[in-house]
Structures are given as structure tokens and as C-alpha cells.
User: Fold this.
Amino acid sequence: MGKLTKNRKSVLDKIEPAKLYTLPEASALVKEITTTKFNASVDLDVRLGVDPRKANQMVRGVVTLPHGTGKEVRVLALVTPDKEAEAREAGADHVGLDDFVEKIKGGWTDIDVIITMPSCMAKIGPLGRILGPRGLMPNPKTGTVTMDVGKAITDVKKGKIDFKVDKFGIIHAAIGKVSFEPEKIAENARELLSSIMKLKPSAAKGTYVRSVYLSSTMSPGIPVDPRSIEG
Assistant:
């Protein structure tokens, strides 16, 4: 084990051992312990008592964070020509279809979200092996395959995120930036957590929310008391 840097030690000293913080306390503390020079992301990690290998225990959903993520979301709209103007007006960064399908086949994935229409899915399906691993595959369940292209783009730009439990039973999501006021971090976190609560599968046994940690890029996690969330 290498020696703890002075910086890291002073950061760890600020987190009381064995203490479970309330959401407002953790939201204030995460700003204090972030020592990066850049405007780091604030992340929430929620460990659930589910077995994600079982289809009836899959936890997946979408939530609109009241204060957005603080991140510029780059949107590609893969749409038919009659929908191009609607997509541009809603703020899509790239709009088209066949030309972008070819670009993606060539390995281009310089985007965060793809919004498309049901009629275009036949062209996008074959891109699954490129888009799937990067979490870019459009899906009707997350509202990214829709006829209401303009609204879908506006929602994503405003702070709509989708989340799903990974194979270890953990949901990991970026819910803001360290520059946000603590109240905004707490409100975004509470919005995500209440969405996760509503999605509790009836097949899940025992404690549903096992642990909640709030952290920023490069910071240690701050344990949050799950009971403080339902406020």
C-alpha cells in the first residue's frame, strides 16, 4: 500500500467512520471533499437487493432531474426527412439518417444520446454491436424511439436520464456537478432515488435499498442513510 497523500488523508478525515449521512449532509460534504481542479460530476451509487439476472427483478427507468445534469448532452436524431426540421428546432446536434448510419458503421460515436422513430429502427438494428456496448442503442422503453421526436430531444436536453441496474445489482448515475449548490445536488439525488423506490420489483425479497453512496469524480464515496431519503 502506498502512503496516503496529504490531500487524500485530509479528505478521508472529513468522512466520519461508520456514520450514515442524510442526503443534505452528504450533498454539502461532497463539495468539500472534491479536490479536482475541473468541475467534477457528482455520482450516486445505489446497491439494490435484487437479482438482475432474473427478468422479473430488472430495475430500469427514466427520470428527469429537476436541475439537469450540468452536462452538455450531444443528441443525434436519426429521422426521416419530414421530421428533420422538428429535430433541429428542438436542439438536436446532428440530424439525418443514412449518412449517419454509415458514419456509425465506420466507428463514429461522438454523441451521448440517439433519438429515432419506429420506422427507422430497421436501419439502426444492425448497428447494435457498435451502439449497444456504449449504451447508445435507442429503445422505446426509455423514450428514445418515438414519433414525438421534438419532445424527446427537449426532454433529454433538459436533464432526462435513463438508469438501469448492472449485473452486480448497482445503479450508477451522474446526477449533477460539484459546482451545483448542495440543495440542488440533494434534490436531483432524491428525484432519482424516489424513481428507483417506485420501481421495486414485487419479486425482490428482503431489503430493497441496501446502500447509497454519493461521490464525485475521484472522491471517496459518502454513505447516505437510505431512511433519510423518503422525505
The chain has a mean pLDDT of 92. The longest strand covers residues 41-48. The beta strands are 41-48, 60-64, 75-78, 94-96, 113-116, 160-164, 170-177, 209-216, 222-224.
